[in-house]
Design brief:
The chain is of the alpha/beta class. It has one domain: Metallo-beta-lactamase, Chain A (4-Layer Sandwich). Helices cover 21% and strands 31% of the residues. The protein binds zinc ion (2 copies).
Length: 269
């Protein structure tokens, strides 16, 4: 079965007419996972006709607003739509501290449960596991604690000769946003089917990478090349650049199999 990623937002901190902040829906093994939830995420899902009744798990990379300001709106909409199924949110422990007062104020008679799962972004560990999908954190380097997520689709198979069961990994998707160039991650994401890596800047603005702790398109491509991934998807574009083809050109000089994220696009891998 194919994995499928849908881009809900591929801008960075400052929303523009062209781009919304971070948000993606990953479909893997017939399940949907929401990765980051910037402002506008729920509207994009509605525009695309994405059914949210079967969305049970949300993964938040870090607590900068462009990755989580859409959450309270989404939770409120779920309640208005009569949701009763529990919702799991995986994030830095501070997210629960920020969200609980908002939920107590705005969602007093909520009819569904929200379960916050505290993750340690500095540590590589498995934070989600069901019969066919597991998710590992990818420690990143950013201004606040931040991690990416490595999604693995696997199936239990039986060896025809020995009768023993073994785990076969089928699809692998790595999401890496936001981060400075961090070569250490290449070992963990080696050979993934699809890597999303942030490219906030082009080399022209490379001096902005250090103070803001972001990457250039060239750096993202270097990570893809060193990790020998099958495909690279780039996004989290700075509002300084209107023409996103510059990001693509720059990345492709290093890693040809690069795809430019566009909002509402769906990519199979
Ligand atoms: Zn960001
Ligand atoms: Zn950030």
């Amino acid at each position: 079965m194919e994995g499928k990623i849908t881009i809900l937002g591929c801008g960075s901190a400052l929303p523009t007419f062209q781009n919304s902040p971070a948000g993606q829906i990953l479909n893997l093994s017939d399940k949907a996972f929401l990765i980051d939830c910037g402002e506008g995420t729920q509207l994009k899902m509605r525009q695309l006709g994405i059914k949210t009744a079967r969305l049970y798990n949300i993964f938040i990379s870090h607590l900068h607003g462009d990755h989580c300001f859409g959450l309270i709106g989404l939770l409120t909409t779920f309640d208005m739509m009569g949701r009763t199924q529990p919702l799991h949110i995986y994030a830095h422990p501070d997210l629960e501290k920020l969200m609980r007062p908002l939920m107590e104020y705005h969602l007093q008679n909520m009819k569904y449960e929200v379960l916050f799962h505290a993750i340690n972004p500095r540590k590589r560990e498995t934070i989600f596991e069901d019969r066919t999908v597991s998710v590992e954190t990818i420690p990143l380097k950013h201004k606040v604690p931040c991690c990416g997520f490595l999604f693995l689709e696997h199936h239990r198979r039986k060896n025809a000769e020995t009768g023993e069961f073994y785990i076969e990994t089928r699809k692998r998707y790595a999401y890496c946003s936001d981060t400075m160039y961090r070569e250490q991650i290449t070992e963990q994401i080696e050979g993934v089917d699809l890597l999303f890596h942030e490219t906030t800047f082009t080399e022209k603005w490379a001096d902005r990478c250090k103070p803001t702790m972001h990457s250039t398109a060239r750096q993202a491509a270097l990570i893809a090349q060193k990790a020998k991934v099958a495909k690279l998807l780039i996004g989290h574009f700075s509002s300084r650049e209107d023409d996103h083809s510059i990001f693509l050109k720059e990345a492709q000089t290093v890693f040809l199999n690069t795809i430019l994220a566009e909002e509402k696009m769906t990519l199979e891998f």
